[in-house]
From TrEMBL:
It is an enzyme of class 6 (ligase). Catalyzes the attachment of glycine to tRNA(Gly). GO terms for molecular function: ATP binding; bis(5'-nucleosyl)-tetraphosphatase (asymmetrical) activity; glycine-tRNA ligase activity. Its EC number is 6.1.1.14. It catalyses: tRNA(Gly) + glycine + ATP = glycyl-tRNA(Gly) + AMP + diphosphate. InterPro entries: aa-tRNA-synt_IIb (IPR002314), aa-tRNA-synth_II (IPR006195), aa-tRNA-synth_II/BPL/LPL (IPR045864), Anticodon-bd (IPR004154), Anticodon-bd_dom_sf (IPR036621), Gly-tRNA_synthase/POLG2 (IPR027031), Gly_tRNA_ligase_bac (IPR022961), GlyRS-like_core (IPR033731). GO terms for biological process: diadenosine tetraphosphate biosynthetic process; glycyl-tRNA aminoacylation. This is Glycine--tRNA ligase.
Length: 445
C-alpha cells in the first residue's frame, strides 16, 4: 500500500461523521443549535466504547478507585463554595450595531467589528458567567435558582464523606465519574471540541498531605499510557505544563495532555495537583466535618487531591482525527479508512455473503446472528463485495468475514483485516477465538 497520506481536515471529519451517522448538528431540521450535537448510531457506540475503555482502566484495573454518578443539579451553595458563582466567567464585549458578542481577550477592541465592520462599536468589557442558570420549584425567584453543573468534579467532593463511610475505602483512594457538564460557551467552534453540552471522565485521587508529589507523576504516567493503549499515535500526544499565568490559584502543579487535532495542538486531558482547596471550601460552606481519620496513625486531616480530568467528547474527536486516513490502494483508487483500535470501534465484525443466491446469504445471516453474543456485528449483502469492504473501512470495522461457495463445502470463511487488507481463511467454529485473539494482539501499523 502507498505511504502517501492525505491531510486530515476538520471538514473531512465533519463530512464523514454526518454521512455515516457518527455525529449530527442538534435540531438540524430547524436550522441547528450552535454548540450542541447529536450522536448517531455509530457515534453513540464509539463514545460509549471510549467511556467503557476508560472506566475499566480507572476502576476495574485499580483496587483503590470506586465509581460515582452524581446528580447534574446540585445545591447552589456548592458552586459558591467552589468559586464558580463569583469566578467562573469570561470578559465579554458586544457590538452595539450588529449585537454580536465576543470574548474581550480574543479580539482587538480598537479594530472594526469582524462581523459588521463598524468601528468604535464595542461595549466596555464585562464578566459573563459561563454557568447555565435555571429554577427548581413553582416560583422563579432568587430562592429557586439552581445551575447545570459546569464540571463533574464537585459532585465527587461533596460525596467524599458518603463514599468514605459506605465503601470502606482508605486513603489513598480515588473516586471516578463520567457525566455531562454544561457551559454557556459564547465561542463554540471546531465541531465537538468546544460545545455547550459535553461529557467528562474525571477521577479525584485523595491522598495524605505530603504524598501528592509522589502520586502526581504516577497519574501522569498512567494517563498518558491510557491513550497509547487506545492505539493513538504517540507522536500526536505531548505534555504541556501550566506556567505561573495559567496555574489556577488553588493548584500546586498542573499538566495537560495535548493532542494534535486538525486545528493544531489542543488540550485533551488535565492532570492537576489541587491541594485540599475543594474539600476545605465545602467543609467551610456546609459546616460539615470533611476530615479523614487515619486508622494507622490516628491523625486527622483533610486529604490532598490529584485530579485527572478528560473530555469524553474531545476523546471522540481525538479518536476520529487520529484514525482518519485516505490511502491509495494497489489498484490505484483511494479508500477512506478509520483505523480505530478494535476495542473502541463501533462495529467489530461485518459478515458479507459473496452473493445472495445458492444459500450463501442464508448461511451468512445465520453466522452473523451467532456472533452477536461476542461482538457488535453488521450484516451487509448489498452491492459488490469490494464496495462493501470500503463501506466497512469508512466506519472503522476492523474485521470483515466473507461467506462464499467454499464455505458451503468446508465451513471456512475469509477474514479480511481492515488495516492491511490481508485475508485469511478460518474455520467457522474457530471464528470467535480467532477474532478475540486478533483484538487482543492488535497493533496499529
Amino acid at each position: 500500500m502507498s505511504e502517501e497520506k492525505q491531510v486530515v481536515t476538520m471538514d473531512k471529519i465533519i463530512s464523514l461523521c454526518r454521512r455515516r451517522g457518527f455525529i449530527f448538528q442538534s435540531s438540524e431540521i430547524y436550522g441547528g443549535l450552535n454548540g450542541a450535537y447529536d450522536y448517531g448510531p455509530l457515534g453513540v457506540d464509539l463514545k460509549n466504547n471510549i467511556r467503557d475503555f476508560w472506566w475499566k482502566e480507572m476502576t476495574q484495573m485499580h483496587d483503590n478507585i470506586v465509581g460515582l454518578d452524581a446528580s447534574i443539579l446540585m445545591h447552589p451553595r456548592v458552586w459558591e463554595a467552589s468559586g464558580h458563582v463569583s469566578n467562573f466567567s469570561d470578559p465579554m464585549v458586544d457590538c452595539k450595531v450588529c449585537k454580536s458578542r465576543f470574548r474581550a481577550d480574543q479580539i482587538d477592541l480598537n479594530a472594526p467589528c469582524p462581523v459588521c465592520g463598524n468601528k468604535d462599536s464595542f461595549t466596555e468589557p464585562r464578566n459573563f458567567n459561563l454557568m447555565f442558570e435555571t429554577h427548581i420549584g413553582a416560583n422563579k425567584d432568587s430562592a429557586s435558582v439552581v445551575y447545570l453543573r459546569p464540571e463533574t468534579a464537585q459532585g465527587i467532593y461533596v460525596d467524599f464523606k458518603n463514599v468514605l463511610q459506605s465503601s470502606r475505602v482508605k486513603i489513598p483512594f480515588g473516586i471516578a465519574q463520567v457525566g455531562k457538564s454544561f457551559r454557556n460557551e459564547i465561542t463554540t467552534k471546531n465541531f465537538i471540541f468546544r460545545s455547550c453540552e459535553f461529557e467528562q471522565m474525571e477521577m479525584q485521587f485523595f491522598c495524605k498531605p505530603g504524598t501528592e508529589d509522589e502520586w502526581f507523576p504516577y497519574w501522569r504516567e498512567q494517563r498518558m499510557n491510557f491513550y497509547k493503549k487506545m492505539g493513538i499515535h504517540p507522536e500526536h500526544l505531548r505534555w504541556h505544563q501550566h506556567g505561573p499565568d495559567e496555574l489556577a490559584f488553588y493548584a500546586k502543579d498542573a499538566y495537560d495532555i495535548q493532542f494534535l487535532f486538525p486545528m493544531g495542538w489542543q488540550e485533551l486531558e488535565g492532570v492537576h495537583s489541587r491541594t485540599n482547596y475543594d474539600l476545605t471550601q465545602h467543609e467551610k460552606f456546609s459546616g460539615k466535618d470533611l476530615t479523614y481519620l487515619d486508622p494507622e496513625t490516628n491523625e486527622r486531616y483533610i486529604p490532598f487531591v490529584v485530579e485527572t480530568s478528560a473530555g469524553l467528547t474531545r476523546n471522540v474527536l481525538m479518536a476520529l482525527s487520529d484514525a482518519y486516513d485516505e490511502e491509495k490502494t494497489p489498484e490505484g483508487d483511494v479508500r477512506t479508512v478509520l483505523h480505530f483500535h478494535p476495542q473502541i470501534a463501533p462495529v467489530k465484525v461485518a459478515v458479507l455473503p459473496l452473493v445472495k443466491k445458492d444459500g450463501i446469504a442464508e448461511y451468512a445471516s445465520k453466522l452473523e446472528h451467532s456472533l452477536r453474543e461476542d461482538f457488535v456485528t453488521f450484516y451487509d449483502q448489498s452491492g459488490a463485495v469490494g464496495r462493501r469492504y470500503r463501506r466497512m473501512d469508512e466506519i472503522g470495522t476492523p474485521y470483515c468475514i466473507t461467506v462464499d461457495y467454499q464455505t458451503l463445502e468446508d465451513h471456512t470463511v475469509t477474514v479480511r483485516f481492515r488495516d492491511s487488507m490481508q485475508q485469511e481463511r478460518v474455520a467457522v467454529d474457530q471464528i470467535v477465538p480467532f477474532i478475540k485473539n486478533a483484538m487482543k494482539n492488535y497493533k496499529r501499523v
